[in-house]
Inverse folding.
């Protein structure tokens, strides 16, 4: 009876700890949703429009399923490698290297899906009919465009992390002028670097077979000329994909963490951490379908604004709204 009570108390303490850790995150998510309510309608309209177009293209989800299958098989072998690495002399370093390889490999697979989907959806926008071949797009993404995809998969996440860090430092050190200036300078530098490496480049990599850096620069310039950069700055579709991936990772943590806690309690933390990343990246690969469709939507809107398939696009109306708000703010300014 005493042992049973002790186990219940231990589980209660751990559960309370989990609740205290996750509750602020959930509260922040709710506040974020309310704060971004003015942008939610546009994000929903854009996702609906882009996914509706993607459904008209044959093999859109087949690409994602094939890559998910490849990722699952690779993760199976990767897991065996991690277990074997625990017996090495420098086990922490080997495991760290394996984690980096997992991040990069799964990011590459996600961008393979994104590039292939972007190409097929863009062809549909331009031609006005489904003339794509999903197998050819997947083959090209795995061969001809693969170098650019690998480079983008390595640079963009690092750059994005640096930019998020810079923005965080901006908020933390707002009272310290020196630190605020350093953080602001860091933020501006990363903002400039985004011109040469961004997630929107994969559509031009797939459509025009450009190198990644050139595609990033051309896409950035194109968005600036057409004022689409104003819309992208307040777009929530990427946030939706990331939050969906985090949710998938959390579900994996709940399942694997709960099972490990009951069978091998000492391994709960490590198994939960690995499970989160596995679930996160697998969902990210699945969410590459809407992300690729949205990417193709923006690029085709800039390159071919007169496309018949883009007549009902929510992008031009959103641009007008945002520019009108900017004009009102400028008028009210003293």
């Amino acid at each position: 009876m005493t042992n049973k009570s002790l186990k219940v108390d231990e589980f209660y303490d751990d559960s309370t700890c989990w609740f205290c850790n996750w509750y602020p995150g959930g509260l922040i998510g709710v506040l974020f949703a309310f704060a971004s309510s003015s942008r939610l309608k546009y994000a929903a309209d854009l996702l609906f429009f882009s996914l509706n177009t993607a459904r008209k293209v044959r093999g859109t989800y087949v690409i994602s399923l094939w890559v998910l299958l490849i990722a699952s098989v690779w993760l199976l072998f990767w897991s065996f490698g991690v277990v074997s690495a625990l017996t090495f002399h420098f086990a922490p370093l080997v495991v760290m290297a394996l984690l980096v390889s997992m991040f990069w490999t799964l990011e590459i697979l996600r961008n393979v899906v994104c590039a292939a989907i972007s190409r097929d959806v863009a062809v549909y926008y331009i031609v006005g009919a489904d003339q794509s071949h999903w197998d050819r797009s997947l083959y090209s993404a795995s061969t001809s465009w693969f170098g650019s995809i690998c480079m983008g998969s390595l640079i963009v996440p690092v750059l994005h992390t640096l930019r998020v860090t810079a923005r965080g430092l901006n908020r933390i050190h707002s009272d310290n002028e020196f630190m605020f200036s350093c953080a602001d300078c860091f933020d501006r530098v990363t903002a400039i670097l985004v011109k040469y490496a961004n997630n929107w480049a994969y559509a031009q990599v797939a459509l025009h077979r450009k190198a990644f850096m050139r595609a990033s620069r051309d896409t950035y310039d194109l968005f600036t000329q057409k004022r689409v950069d104003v819309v992208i700055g307040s777009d929530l579709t990427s946030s939706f994909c990331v939050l969906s991936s985090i949710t998938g990772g959390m579900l994996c943590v709940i399942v694997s963490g709960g099972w490990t806690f009951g069978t091998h309690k000492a391994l709960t933390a490590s198994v939960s951490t690995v499970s989160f990343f596995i679930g996160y990246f697998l969902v990210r690969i699945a969410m590459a379908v809407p992300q690729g469709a949205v990417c193709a939507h923006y690029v085709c809107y800039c390159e071919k604004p007169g496309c018949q398939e883009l007549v009902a696009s929510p992008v031009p109306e959103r641009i007008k709204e945002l520019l009108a708000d900017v004009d009102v703010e400028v008028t009210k300014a003293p």
Q: What stands out?
A: Confidence is low (pLDDT under 50) at residues 1-28, 327-334. Residues 29 and 126 are 38 Å apart (CA to CA).
